[in-house]
């Protein structure tokens, strides 16, 4: 599974579990990063940096909006 696919699924799990479309980067790291790593390349040396890149790319594509630094809203 790619990082994009895994992060999208992780965001869906998190927002479904909390019943809120707004989430923090830290919530995602604390609750979903181990699962993301296990679904992607566990040998990646900088998973938090990769997560940041994927979140930024999702913002650029219009899937997320940034409410404030490290606070995101799921748009789709």
List the helices and strands and how they pair.
Blueprint: H1 3-18, E1 22-24, H2 25-39, H3 47-60, E2 64-68, E3 71-74
Antiparallel strand pairs: 1-3, 2-3
Helix pairs in contact: 1-2, 2-3
Which strand order spans the largest sheet, edge to edge or round the barrel? 1-3-2
How many structurally independent domains? Answer: 1
Please name the CATH topology.
Answer: Arc Repressor Mutant, subunit A
Low confidence ranges: none
Mass-distribution shape? globular
Percent helix range: 55-70%
Cα Rg? 11 Å
Question: How large is the share of residues in beta strands?
Answer: 15-25%
Name of the CATH class: Mainly Alpha
Global mean pLDDT: 94
Number of strands: 3
Largest sheet: 3 strands, antiparallel
Structural class by helix and strand composition: alpha+beta
SS field, number of helical segments: 3
The CATH architecture category equals Orthogonal Bundle
Strand/helix succession: HEHHEE
Report how far the terminal alpha carbons are from each other: 20 Å
Can I get a quick summary?
The chain has helices at residues 3-18, 25-39, 47-60, and strands spanning 22-24, 64-68, 71-74.
Structure, described:
This protein has a single domain, classed as Arc Repressor Mutant, subunit A (Orthogonal Bundle). The model has no long low-confidence stretch (mean pLDDT 94). Helix 1 crosses helix 2 and helix 2 crosses helix 3. Helix content is 59%, strand content 16%. A three-stranded antiparallel sheet has the order 1-3-2. By secondary structure, it is an alpha+beta fold. It is globular. The chain contains three helices and three strands, in the order αβααββ.
